[in-house]
Amino acid sequence: MFLNCGKPLSSTDDTNTKCLHGESSNNRKKSAVILSRFRDTMTFDRIALAPSLFRFVEDCGRLQTRQILKLSKSTVFNIIRTFKKTNSAENKQRSGWPRIFSELEERCIVRQTHINPKTRAVKSTLKCKSRFRKSVNPETVRNVFKKHKYFGRVPRRKPYISKTNRKARLAFAKTYVKQSTEFWKNVIFVDESKYNIFGSDGKQKVWHTPNTALHIKNLRPTVKYGGANQLVWDCMASSGVGNLDFIDGTMNKYVYLDILKRNLKQSVSNLGISRHFKFYQENDPKHTADICKLWVLYHCPGVIKTTAQSPDINPIEHVWDYLQQKINEHNVSNKQELRKHLIEEWAKIRGSFCAKLIKSMSSQLREVVKCKGGPTRY
């Protein structure tokens, strides 16, 4: 059909279009004028034009038709010939390049990737050569993966969780998943974290223009033996954060016990937690040492027995991440500056931020149940 570039066709245009189908020689000139006007104001469509063009050629001839439409002789001829044979001017569907792998072979390739997602396309290509006797490019195998909705992505980094710990995590989540927010408001969470002077141990990204990669501001400074860092202990609850304690030297059960004696009760008092609070710590060997367990037993009204390899169900981990982001905003060059900025940024953390994290405990535990004790998105 002709597609109108402006206003829709009027009834007059519709009447004039019918003249194209007339066989009377008296209307040839009028039909030619109408067809010419359509050519100037419409977009040519060979499929819808074919019936009118076929009848118009019978009246006016191919020469006049191609002059009016400004089409080549072969174009007019091909449209008429196709319409005579098939009663349609639509192009035949191309078969395309023949497929290399059959459906069965593609399913076999995808099945191997489903079993082992870390399989490389090059290795799959070699298997195809030995199994199907077909020598193909690795890109062909990648196209098979994409066809079946398998896309190459960088795997997410998550702590390893053994089968035993998965069962323990699942049991822990099922025990506490139905606890209300009021229950978690009376829990104090404790943990340790390390902060580096020269930034995170992980990957970093900078944005720079071409040929400026070696500018000082675009470099990531490194020092021999990894540089200095600061180990920090802290606690938090729904009402806010507790004391911040710096740890020098090696962290062991005796150092950990001294930290608890200096900070735990004072933090509980400052945070306004009920005296029937519950103590929540990770299942680290230093935390579960006999002398530490004995002290906690006599000085904490309640203790929540957590499972190993479970940082995703300890909300204080999110506080550490938030603090790391704030520290990265400062240009720290030595340990004294690092401690100074840690204290300043720690004091700025609001109670509303902590309350939001505590409120998400139920969601985190539901996620653990959903993942059957495995890694979660938290």
From TrEMBL:
GO molecular-function term, one example from the UniProt record: DNA binding
Name of the molecule in the record: Transposable element Tcb1 transposase
The gene coding this protein: TCB1_482
Domain Transposase Tc1-like: 107-178
Top-level division of the source organism's lineage: Eukaryota
GO biological process: DNA integration; DNA transposition
